Amino acid sequence: MTNTNQTNTIKIDPQCRRVNSTHAYSATGHMLPCCYADNSNISDFDDILTDNLLVDNVENVNKDIVNSNEWKSFFEMLDKDPESAPRVCKFYCTQEFKTKNKIYM
């Protein structure tokens, strides 16, 4: 019998939001939240892969990219609407993945 009262809410614990997290750089010249993002599903990150956020187009990576409105919106989505998160975030940053692979942070 199926329990129709169950919800499939995803709980994401984004590694890119940690104090000492490191970001990744793509071959396209963009900074990414993490190395997992640089894969075949990179289009999931289109909102933060704009020309104005190319590393070569900014003076200060932290100020101009990580603190940009685009990145702030991305981080807010991870916190408030994890169902809309990119597939790679759902895969690598959920408790299920960490438990299955014995990753403790």
Q: How would you describe this protein?
A:
The protein is mainly alpha-helical and 105 residues long. Helix content is 29%, strand content 4%. The protein is built from four helices and two strands. The protein has helices at residues 61-66, 69-80, 87-92, 95-100, and strands spanning 24-25, 31-32. A two-stranded antiparallel sheet has the order 1-2. Strand 1 and strand 2 form a beta hairpin. The protein is globular. Residues 1-7 have low confidence and may be disordered.
Relevant terms:
single chain; 105 residues; mainly alpha; two-stranded antiparallel ribbon; 2 strands; 29% helix; disordered N terminus
Topology:
Layout lengths: L23 E2 L5 E2 L28 H6 L2 H12 L6 H6 L2 H6 L5
Antiparallel strand pairs: 1-2
